[in-house]
Design goal:
The protein has 12 helices and no strands. The protein is an all-alpha fold and 226 residues long.
Length: 226
Amino acid sequence: MVRKIVFGVLWLGFTFYAFVLAPPDQPDTFELIKNLSIGQWQGINPLIIALFSLMGIWPMIYSAIMFIDGRGQKIPAWLFTTASFGVGIFALLPYLTLRESNPQFSGTKNTLIKLLDSRVTGVILTVVAGILVAYGLQQGDWSNFVQEWQTSRFIHVMSLDFCLLSLLFPALLRDDMARRDWQKPQLFWLFALIPLFGPLLYLCLRPTLPEASVAVISSQPQKVAS
């Protein structure tokens, strides 16, 4: 119950901050979002391009755990993960608030869960994230980014969104490791404390999720010869 209260307060607090206390919207915000979305990046700081693109990687990281975690929840995990591609942590915090601890996986894996559970998916996401981070750090203008962070609600909130996605990943990590019978406390903290690449490393290294085998026994009535 304490965990739910903490996540609920964080959700409400961050929402209030983002829409009331954060820097105001800029007139060109919609145009910036449109250009970032369709790849018209001319004149846009590479740091902003990289950050915006990484905000598409994070929902994939969370999806790789939440679609599995959601198998034992009363709430549909797919709804929150799908929404997170558009609004990030604003969609994931309600799920973290409402979910129950779920250290087991029941049933069999469907095609989507097999894809999300694959280490290949983790490797692809890691490579893409590495390219984006390298591009942003090498080509980006930090003084411009700081100025945008101080004056633009979109950049400001997106940056904090990224930080919260990094900080809250451990809330799902422990149960996912338990579902795989991977009890490694040292590795847990390695994956939990390294922003972005800790979760990505986890997706690359975690053992395959075991499926529950269901034995069906059929019995035929015995005929008694008279």
